[in-house]
Each structure stands twice: as structure tokens, then as C-alpha cells.
Amino acid sequence: MEQGTVKSHLLQQAEALAKDCTTFAESLRQERDCHDVMLGIMQLAMVNKGIIDIHAQYVPHTDSFTGFVVESDSSYQADTVVWIYSFDVNFSFDKNPLQMLLEVEDKLLELIADAKDKAEVAA
């Protein structure tokens, strides 16, 4: 092999490796963003207890983040619990899980605001 051909081949390998590294870094960034939104949703659940009950969990065997919302005065009897919202974001199958998580977060913020307004009117 000529020296120019070897350099050309090494350059191609280096470019391919750089592209792979960039793709990997982008996937980590998107995963990190998803984790940040999931943690934000968990924080909303904790901060707004007593206003609205947000149940959220990560399910590792399906690689999904799921949950539901009920009014804070729900009795939790099996036959009487009414979900006012539910969500299921699957990281393996959904094309844009970050966008879906952001939509869930927006909906939860809307439900929290409605519950706070309802509580103020009742008070």
C-alpha cells in the first residue's frame, strides 16, 4: 500500500470514528434531557401533594415512564378511583420520547393550575 493510500484510509477511519462519537454524544444528551424532564415530573408530584395526586414511575423491564393523576381527595377504593389523566412514554418504541415527556409535563402543569384554582374557589 502506498503511503498516500494509508493516510487516506486512516483519515476515513478517523472521520467515521468522529461521526460515531458525535452520534453517541447526541444520544447521551437526549437521554440526559429525558432524565431531567422525568425528574421534573417527579418533583411536581412531590411539591404538589395535597393539591393533586400524581403517580409516576419508571418501569425498567419495558423501558417506559408511566403514571396517572387523581384528585387529591380520592378515596383510593379499587372500584371508585377515577384517573383524570394517564401517560405512558416508552423509550424503546416511541420516536420522540423527549417531546412526549415535555407534553406530559405541560399537561401536569395545567392540571396542577386547575386544581389550585379549584381549591381557591372552594376556600
Give a verbal description of the structure.
The chain is an alpha+beta fold. It has one domain. The chain has two helices and three strands. Strand 1 and strand 2 form a beta hairpin. The chain is elongated. The termini are far apart. The mean pLDDT is 85. InterPro entries: Gp11_sf (IPR036214).
Based on the model shown, name its key terms.
single chain, 123 residues, alpha+beta, 3-stranded antiparallel beta sheet, 2 helices, 58% helix
Structural class: alpha+beta
- Percent helix, as a range, is 55-70%
Largest sheet: 3 strands, antiparallel
Radius of gyration: 23 Å
Low-confidence stretches: none
Distance between the first and last residues' Cα: 84 Å
The number of distinct β-strands equals 3
Total number of helices: 2
List the helices and strands and how they pair.
Blueprint: H1 3-47, E1 52-59, E2 64-71, E3 85-90, H2 97-122
Helix pairs in contact: 1-2
InterPro entries: Gp11_sf
Brief summary of the model shown:
The protein has helices at residues 3-47, 97-122, and strands spanning 52-59, 64-71, 85-90. By secondary structure, the chain is of the alpha+beta class.
